Amino acid sequence: MKKHYASIASLALLVTACGGGGSSDNVSQTPGPSPQPPTPNQPEPPPEMPVDCQRDSWVAGTTELCDGTFIYRDYVYDDYGADTGLIGLSPLTVMNLLSRGGGVFNPVANTPGLLSPTAGDERYPAGMENTADLVSLALSLDGDELSVRFELNTLYGSDDSLAVIAIDTDNDSSTGGGVWPGLGIRSDGWEEIYTFAEGDPINNIIAGRIPAPETEQWRIQAVVAQNDGTVMNVAFRGPHESARAASIPEQILPDAGNFWEDKQSRALGSGDISVFGEVVSRSDLENGTTRAAKSVTGFQQRVYTSQYTLPPGEGVSLRGVPGRQGDTGLPCDQYFHYLGKYQPYGFYVPEQDGPHELQLVLHGCEANHASQINQGNFQTSFADANNRILAAPLGRGPRGFYTGLSERDVLDVRADVEENYPIDSRKVLVSGYSMGGYGTLRMAALYPQDYAAGVNWVGFTGSVLNLPLERTLLGSLADLTGIELLDTPLSAFQELQQEFSIGAEDNVLDYLGNLEHIPMANAYSAADEIVHVTTALALQEKFIAGESDYVFYLHLPAEHLTYILLDEWQKMANYSANRVIVSRPSTIRYYYDPAQAYPEYAIDHNRAYWVSNIVNRSTEPSQISLDSDGCGTPQMDSQFTPGAGTYPIPWVSTQRTVSSDALLPGGNTLSGSLENIHQLTIDVTDSCLAGAINLDIDSDGSSTLVFSDGREVDLVQGRNQLFVNPL
Q1: Predicted pLDDT of residue 18
Q2: Nearest to 543 by CA among 571, 512, 497
Q3: Cβ-contact 540, 570 below 8 angstroms
Q4: Are 219 and 279 in contact (CB under 8 A)?
Q5: Distance in angstroms (rounded) separating the CA atoms of residues 256 and 243
Q6: Following DSSP, what letter does each residue of 302-322 receive, concatenated?
Q7: 341: left (phi over 0), alpha (psi -120 to 50) or beta
Q8: Contact 535/486 with Cβ under 8 angstroms?
Q9: What is the tens place of the pLDDT at every residue in 117-134?
Q10: Residues 6 or more apart from 16 whose CB is under 8 A from it?
Q11: Helix/strand/coil for 449
């Protein structure tokens, strides 16, 4: 066995010491167990991935051949090293509990969330988090040399990390093998081992050249370690890594986490990584072979490349970068923790062929992108039974609240799935738990044209002071005090509600009218210690007063995590089945608040169905209520029923089922009302108003209707009745 030490000087060294230039051989060979680094030579720029081989997204743990380049693409934010067992002293761990909660000031945490544990227990020095997280490893043949290129998720300094590759040159595990020098691990079979100790922190690349084995087949292994030799990440783990900390007891026991590194942590804990490796054929590299990564079904992780990062553009902030509300330090206020361009999401693909339905799964506060989606009954009830792909965004961490950059991630995850899988775009749903339930209500209400239905478990409604019968209660107060004006105390109470919004930026009760065409299933708990039953009943009250299709379950003996602990989802899955997006509704009821826009992330909610380019007259919210009979007017039937049951625990419910039993012939009338609208656009195709239009609209001020075929109509305050000629 031979051990080699390859030192690739940093780009900073290139700039300060040589100002450019070429490079000689960067590899030295020294026999014995303690290889020494050579004096660094002037380095070449890091090799680039061939353009045709670059990927914006991938299934984690997969390999491919691209024009003779062998490429492994890893999981991200999975760099937590070895599991130290039930109780470890260095680092300090007790039943996998003390390593979490960095977002709530735990000084010994290695992850920010309280409900998103890691299986591995290693930690970085403060400020160095994520600097040994492998993104990809590429190998290509150049004459008698092998070009090696490690890309890391984070690299602040040229010598932050060690990248190590071992080669079993005869692909025979019974020969060679042993301890990897300085790393505290071993594996079978290897004859050559190379350590790369310096990299390019601008491009996050550690690279170099090594002698290529002359044999036809070799097995390669690779790890990335902190610069002290603590191994954090192992390559070639395959696409079915485990993230099984779904519930009790896995949430608190060793070697179970929610970051797709359970098997890695177990192998590193044992000190033997022989199981992880990949066979390479020299002829594939010589002949420029292209072979795509195999398609993967079942539970997995995907990674996509975001256009957006947070300073410093990479890394993990255990404490978190605060959102718009500022650095309050309060539990579940909005913070972003995963800062780089590579963002993971949990993913489940059923065995059936496409086209598939798609369900976005939004995790709760302190959880992450493995929550719910890693539970067997959840996969069976929602995905397998409906030929539905499940996608769970990380949303930049456990407390993103699905606004701003976290909201952008939800949109980008959907786009990535639709780009890479056959999705029936008419059958896209959104669901979520707790904070994710808030995200579900919010996303469905602000993008109503994009979703066929929603499923909400114990969703936060936007304020802990949301109460049922608030107008009735305040009206009774007026009767008692003789104050007849309801608006003044109600306005003051609404301002107080905003002060108790936790991480939410808006009160979803204000938006529920937007759900007119989106069926929504809701499950709440009478004994919920986090999302209090009073806020749940306020939500139910809003649904009862509205016109949309919904079901609201109140489980009497349940608390906040009951549904995850039971892993029982069937009622909600049944409700979600066979839902289809309403594409050309005859009515639009839309509440638009420009304050929720994030232009820096290309986010503005200024459209709904056939209305777009909404511009308000002031910075206050607007309300749009428009009816078009151009595509025909459906005759709706609405059935309201209370219910009760015992499965899986006792519950009571209210439900409105909305159906259409007839469609009246199309006309040419556009009617309704506008509040605080300066201008908006009407799509004449989707509203079926391409010809002459009878207009009958009440407006609370001057506004302009722009039709997509070029016609414009100026409205005045009051009722506007006029005939709009076709072009």
Answers
A1: 29
A2: 512
A3: no
A4: yes
A5: 7
A6: EEEE-S---TTSSSEEEEEEE
A7: alpha
A8: no
A9: 999 999 999 999 999 999
A10: none
A11: helix
Strands annotated E in 30-119 = 57-59, 62-66, 69-73, 87-89, 92-94
Query: Does the pLDDT value for residue 155 go beyond 60?
Result: yes
DSSP 462: S
CB atoms within 10 A of CB 402: 29
Choose among 130, 60, 373, 121: nearest CA to 255.
Answer: 121
Rounded CA separation 611/355 (Å): 29
Beta strands in 52-122 (DSSP E): 57-59, 62-66, 69-73, 87-89, 92-94
For the four alpha carbons of 440, 442, 445 and 446, in that order, the dihedral sign comes to negative
Give pTM, 2 decimals: 0.91
Query: Do the beta carbons of residue 712 and residue 688 sit within 8 Å?
Result: no
Q: How does 256-281 read in b/e, with b if 16+ C-beta sit within 10 Å?
A: bbbbbbbbbbbbbbeeebbbbbbebb
Half-sphere exposure of 26 (CA within 13 A, CB side): 28
Which amino acid would we find at residue 455? V
Tens of pLDDT, residues 233-290: 999 999 999 999 998 888 887 889 999 999 999 999 999 999 999 999 999 999 999 9
How far apart CA 352 and CA 663 sit, in angstroms, is 35
Distance CA 223, CA 234 (A): 4
As given in the structure block, the two tokens for residue 183 are 């790393």
Q: What is the DSSP string of 196-216?
A: E---BTTTTEEEEEEEPPSSS
- Angle, CA 508 vertex, CA 505 and CA 511 arms, to 5°: 115
Burial of 588-611, coded b for 16+ CB within 10 Å and e otherwise, reads bbbbbbbebebeebebebbbbbbb
**Highest mean pLDDT: which of 4-13, 15-24, 99-108, 696-705?**
696-705
Residue in this structure with the two tokens 């959907």, named with its chain if needed: 414
Listed residue (719, 609, 723) closest to 674, CA to CA: 719
Handedness of CA 696, 701, 702, 706 (dihedral sign): negative
Which of 304-308, 494-498, 566-570, 604-608 is predicted with the least confidence, judged by mean pLDDT? 494-498
pLDDT in tens, 7-16: 333 323 222 2
The packing angle between helices 470-481 and 487-499, to 10°, is: 130
Phi, psi of 428 (to 5 degrees): -115, 130
Radius of gyration in angstroms for the set of CA atoms belonging to the chain, rounded to a whole number: 29
pLDDT at site 41: 36
Residue with tokens 């910075």: 619
Strands (DSSP E) contained in 376-443 are 388-393, 423-433
CA 518/CA 550 separation, integer angstroms? 8
Bridge-based pairing state of the strands 356-362 and 388-393: parallel
Q: Strand 677-682's sheet: what is its strand order? A: 611-616, 677-682, 703-707, 712-715
**Residue in the structure block whose two tokens are 């002037």:** 42
| DSSP structural state of residue 114 | S
- Percentage of the residues of the chain whose pLDDT score is greater than 70: 88
Residue with tokens 């598939």: 356
**Distance, first Cα to last Cα, the chain:** 82
β-partners of residue 668 are none
Beta bridge partners of 664: 633
The first and second tokens of residue 25, run together, are 């051989």
Under a CB-based contact definition with an 8 Å cutoff, are residues 401 and 364 in contact? no
